[in-house]
């Protein structure tokens, strides 16, 4: 998957494509309740909340991108937040 990337919006609202390194596959066993709650959390967490836990803006966007990937995986598994 070399050279692939995911679209995201930069600070000006423009889409850009991030070059990704080799993806990492993470497997977790969750109850249905945990998966649904996690899907809801990932949907609702704000940029400001992520920024408050990050070292800088760059890390904030990396975390947001990771959470977007997690949200997509949860959606594909049938856990679509309300």
Please name the defining characteristics of this protein.
82 residues, alpha+beta, two-stranded antiparallel sheet, 2 strands, globular, disordered N terminus
Account of the protein in words:
By secondary structure, the chain is of the alpha+beta class. The chain has one domain (5-76). Helix content is 49%, strand content 12%. It has 3 helices and 2 strands. The protein has helices at residues 32-44, 47-53, 57-76, and strands at 5-9, 15-19. It has a two-stranded antiparallel ribbon. The longest helix has 20 residues, at 57-76. The protein is globular. It starts with a strand and ends in a 6-residue tail after the last helix.
Blueprint (SSEs and pairs):
Layout: E1 5-9, E2 15-19, H1 32-44, H2 47-53, H3 57-76
Antiparallel strand pairs: 1-2
Helix pairs in contact: 1-3, 2-3
């Amino acid at each position: 998957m070399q050279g692939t990337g995911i679209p995201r919006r930069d600070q000006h609202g423009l889409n850009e494509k991030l070059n990704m390194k080799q993806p990492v596959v993470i497997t977790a066993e969750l109850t249905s309740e945990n998966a649904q709650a996690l899907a809801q959390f990932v949907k609702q967490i704000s940029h400001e909340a992520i920024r408050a836990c990050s070292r800088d803006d760059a890390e904030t966007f990396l975390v947001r991108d990771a959470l977007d990937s997690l949200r997509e995986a949860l959606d594909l598994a049938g856990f679509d937040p309300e």
